[in-house]
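Intended use. Records like the one below are meant for learning the mapping from a protein sequence to its folded structure. Do not use them to infer anything beyond what is encoded.
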Amino acid sequence: MAKIVLHIGAHKTATSYLQAVFHRNRSLLQASGLYYPYIGPNNAHHALAGQWFQINDLPEGFYGPAGPVGLWDEFIKTHVNLEGTLFLSAENFTRVYPHRVNMAELAERLAVFEEVRIVYTLRRQVELIPSVWAQISKMNFVPSVWTFMRTVFDERRAKGVPIDHNAVYHELLTGFAPEQIHLLDYSRFRAHPAGVVGVFLDLLGVAVDPATLVQPPEDEANISPDPLALFIASQIVGPEIKAPPPHELVANLQGLLDTLCTGPRTLLAKHEYAKVKERFRHGNQTLVDSVQPYQPGFSFDEGTTPEGLFYRDDLNDQAWIKIAAALYAWGQNGHSRGAGRLRSKFMRH
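Structure written out for the chain above:
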């Protein structure tokens, strides 16, 4: 009978890259006893969450007459008696808005397997929040930063993505025993010599050298653009454009920001950054204290504020003048619309 490991995110913790690598190397991994099932229509297993809420990016009729429950039934029937470990990855299992997965029902679904393990990756909130904002802006529309941050503080979520890791853990405990839950610190495994794939192969007990795996194309890694460059671009394009700003404009601004601030930068304003760290500090420590008895040595590094961090409200008059000059030059090369909008924006500023 198969064991099963379900990786549930969080969003923006190299999940898309991990899913793409495992999907492209299914045959090689299967030879080592690890099964990464293909259930369509993408590299991940988001469709399995359809038992609890609508999955918007699935093609019409994907589930067939039996619906999402039928997909689960077929999945279990096909995989439960395999010899080895099943690895599933879908970060939408931790979404909290507008609907969420019932963890007790999920646990009941998975109980037929020999062993069940849930893996959740944590990312520092001051990094996670801008990354989620940029992902939404890249894929759909650019939400107001101010409205977005109000939801972060009032409801502890970035759109549908939970920001409070301690709350996620306690939600998992409504269905799973603490011994079944394994937490990983994104900042630590990102710096691991074997990378995120190596960390997960070790966790899954698979003796495969990560260097032998076929790498996916860059677009499958789902890397978000620089949030601050995207914010500036959205201000230039204006709120009436119900689409992400042009990629070329964002890339141009990102290069410009590299000259304005040679160190780290953040989408957050100074007061937002400080408030995020203060708001979630206690919950993060409570989480570490709760997990350590079951996962000895676990820690979550919230990090210190980087020296010379460039904030959104560091975009002062001098910064806007430099941006306007650079965009004017860019406009001289055939992009006058963007340059003109920025000059108007600066005059209002």
